[in-house]
Design goal:
Helices cover 74% and strands 0% of the residues. The chain has 93 residues and is an all-alpha fold. It folds into two domains: 1-59, no CATH class; 61-93.
Amino acid sequence: MTKRDSLEIQDISGLTDADWAEINMLRRAYESGGTKALSKALDRLAKDAIRHVRIMGAFFPDMVREAIKDQMAETGMTEDELAELIRKLESSA
């Protein structure tokens, strides 16, 4: 990523206000300190796995979607099993 590049969001669906605050912090880190500062900010973000996936999915939706599918395949979980798990979790909440 060069200095003239910006962090462009590709998919805003599912982003919360807190996610937008984090995205703005990532952008400021990159603008003020380049890739080194961005990398440090991303390392900090990675400590919150759910927010990390949502934000990375906003920047790189296809890449994140494929990584999740690949991980599911490695564990042997199908999309139908995932949908069933989500239904169970939603009904218990």
